[in-house]
UniProtKB/TrEMBL annotation, chain A:
EC class name: transferase
Gene3D superfamilies hit by this protein: Zinc/RING finger domain, C3HC4 (zinc finger)
Keyword terms: Metal-binding, Transferase, Ubl conjugation pathway, Zinc, Zinc-finger
GO molecular function, one term: zinc ion binding
Claim: Protein biosynthesis is one of the keywords in the record: no
GO biological-process terms attached to the record: protein ubiquitination
Keyword Zinc-finger appears in the UniProt entry: yes
Reactions that this protein is recorded to catalyse: S-ubiquitinyl-[E2 ubiquitin-conjugating enzyme]-L-cysteine + [acceptor protein]-L-lysine = [E2 ubiquitin-conjugating enzyme]-L-cysteine + N(6)-ubiquitinyl-[acceptor protein]-L-lysine
EC numbers: 2.3.2.27
The RING-type domain, residue ranges: 279-318
SUPFAM superfamilies to which the protein is assigned, alphabetical: RING/U-box
Protein name: RING-type E3 ubiquitin transferase
The organism's taxonomic lineage, starting at the top: Eukaryota, Metazoa, Ecdysozoa, Arthropoda, Crustacea
From TrEMBL, chain B:
Domain UBC core: 3-149
Organism name: Daphnia pulex
Family of the protein in this entry: Belongs to the ubiquitin-conjugating enzyme family.
InterPro entries the record matches: Ub_conjugating_enzyme, UBC, UBQ-conjugating_AS, UBQ-conjugating_enzyme/RWD
Sorted UniProt keywords: ATP-binding, Nucleotide-binding, Transferase, Ubl conjugation pathway
Alphabetical list of CDD domains matching this protein: UBCc_UBE2N
Name assigned to this protein: UBC core domain-containing protein
MF GO annotations: ATP binding; ubiquitin conjugating enzyme activity
Length: 363, 152
């Protein structure tokens, strides 16, 4: 029996029975046989029956395969229904959209294949280390996860001080198309080897140390150059893997937010137009409610309340919705100037108003 | 009558401040939910040069239900019937509360540029549009001249 528990919009995994040998294929979606999901889930301490069990509430079902092929024990006691929301505090964050390849000038004109260095922006509340694995295999161990680079020598680890908006750019971290035979290898299909994994690990905080893994694909673009694309991110806290999911519709807020440090309150209601942070229905209140599983942040709480009785589809994409999730954005970024100011990765700044523990009992 | 929702006030203000090119929408003096709309026939369409009057009404449930829109000027178009009713999916089952007066009017303008005789409302017009498009377009031009020029 396996239980998937999710909270704060990201997902963790747990089993009660660790003794038997676990077949990794059991933890892949879709399963070879039987059901992956049960016919109910638990959220905010309440049990909800579902008509159609085959559905992961926070994204595509195939996203679950990013969680690794082995269960890990759940380190916390079961939450009480009246327990307030717990916020997951991410200490490190690689800004997913900033991840890219930079082409380096060729060392000679002998017609060599060009090589690329990896560049991205990251935020860290504590001192941290960054390691980049090419052709990476992920091994889930009983205590934590281990990354192994299958191509070339063991990767170098770089150390950084705390700070927001730091740029990772190391001339010794290079990738060249001749390093790898199948550069377009897909994470989903090949399963085992991920082309590039960026691991950013906190060097302070509780043990085991937090880390964030950013999974990247290398794509061969039409002009014969290679492009690095961040695909998914996982945050490991207390050895639990939380899959980070983008929220669509939060982007405009962060553009305004950069220096003011306030997300919602600084929005001039007269100033924002259609693309702004206001609810698409009333056009007055700030957006704070997320539609699942399409993850469009487009409603205020009041309109979400009325929408759920009057419609079944997301106003933005018309996909049927299964749940509405109110998020409480932190309004102030307080504290020392090293406080991470970015909203690029929402896991840091938001707090869900329900304990989103999704339990799928299966097998 | 309940006060006007803020959304309608905002949409009206924005329509006034940044009108859609080729479209004017003015709220009625008596009823802020009723708009007098004028759409210019799009360039390159058989409706070019014509000026089409429409009425647009925001029902009580708006934006949870679609605005009611109707052509007041006679028009020869396979998706608009002789009462001026419009066959447009976003006004029916494809309505979304994220759509607005502005986007609805843009869609109607686009419908004039791209008639869709495969999803007809005016069957005779659609039929002719399919079997003899040249004649159908000639009719549309003629109707435009007769009913949509010098009418305002």
């Amino acid at each position: 029996m396996g239980i998937f528990a999710s909270r704060n919009g990201v997902v963790t995994e747990d089993v009660t029975d660790q003794s038997s040998n676990i077949n990794p294929l059991m933890y892949r979606y879709p399963p070879k046989q039987g059901n992956y999901f049960s016919n109910y889930f638990i959220m905010g301490g309440e049990r909800f029956d579902v008509q159609q069990p085959e559905a992961y509430l926070f994204g595509d079902n195939s996203d679950l395969n990013f969680l690794g092929n082995r269960p890990v024990p759940f380190p916390y006691s079961a939450p009480q229904t009246n327990e307030p929301t717990k916020t997951l505090r991410a200490l490190v964050n690689v800004r997913k959209e900033s991840v890219r390849f930079l082409r380096t000038a060729p060392a000679s004109d002998r017609g060599e294949e060009p090589s690329y260095t990896v560049e991205f922006v990251f935020d860290s509340d504590v001192s941290c280390s960054v390691t980049i694995y090419f052709g990476c295999a992920e091994e889930v161990l009983a205590r934590g996860v281990r990354y192994v680079s299958r191509s070339g020598s063991p990767p170098e680890t770089f150390h950084y001080k705390p700070g927001a908006g730091q740029v990772f750019s190391q001339p010794t971290v290079t990738w060249s198309p001749c390093n790898i035979q199948q550069p377009q290898i897909q994470v989903q299909t090949k399963g085992d080897i991920i082309p590039v994994v960026i691991v950013c690990e906190a060097e302070e905080g509780d043990d085991p140390k937090q880390h964030q893994a950013t999974y990247c694909l290398i794509e061969h673009s039409s002009d014969a150059s290679y492009v690095l694309k961040a695909l998914k991110q996982k945050l490991y806290v207390d050895n639990l893997a939380y899959l980070l999911q983008d929220i669509y519709g939060i982007e405009n807020k962060l553009a305004d937010e950069d220096d003011t440090g306030s997300v919602l309150e600084d929005c001039d209601p007269e100033d924002d137009d259609e693309g702004g942070g206001e609810c698409v229905i009333c056009m007055s209140e700030p957006r704070d409610t997320l539609i699942l599983p399409c993850r469009h942040l487009c409603l205020c709480q009041l309109c979400a309340d009325s929408l759920r009785y009057q419609a079944n589809n997301c106003p933005i994409c018309r996909a049927p919705f299964r749940a509405l999730l109110q998020i409480r954005a932190l309004r102030k970024v307080q504290g020392p100037p090293t406080e991470v100011n970015s909203l690029c990765n929402v896991a840091k700044k938001i707090e869900f108003n329900c304990f989103g523990s999704v339990v799928y009992s299966s097998r | 009558m309940a006060g006007l929702p803020r959304r309608i006030i905002k949409e009206t203000q924005r329509l006034m401040a940044e009108p859609v090119p080729g479209i004017s929408a003015v709220p009625d003096e008596q009823n802020a939910r009723y708009f007098h709309v004028v759409v210019a026939g799009p360039e390159g369409s058989p409706f070019e040069g014509g000026v089409f009057k429409l009425e647009l009404f925001l029902p009580e449930e708006y934006p949870m239900s679609a605005p009611k829109v109707r052509f007041m000027t006679k028009i020869y178009h396979p998706n608009i019937d002789k009462l001026g009713r419009i066959c447009l999916d976003i006004l029916k089952d494809k309505w979304s509360p994220a759509l607005q007066i502005r986007t609805v009017l843009l869609s109607i303008q686009a419908l004039l540029s791209a008639p869709n005789p495969d999803d007809p409302l005016a069957n005779d017009v659609a039929e002719l549009w399919k079997v003899n498009e040249v004649e159908a377009i000639r009719n549309a031009r003629e109707w435009t001249r007769t009913y949509a020029m010098g009418n305002i």
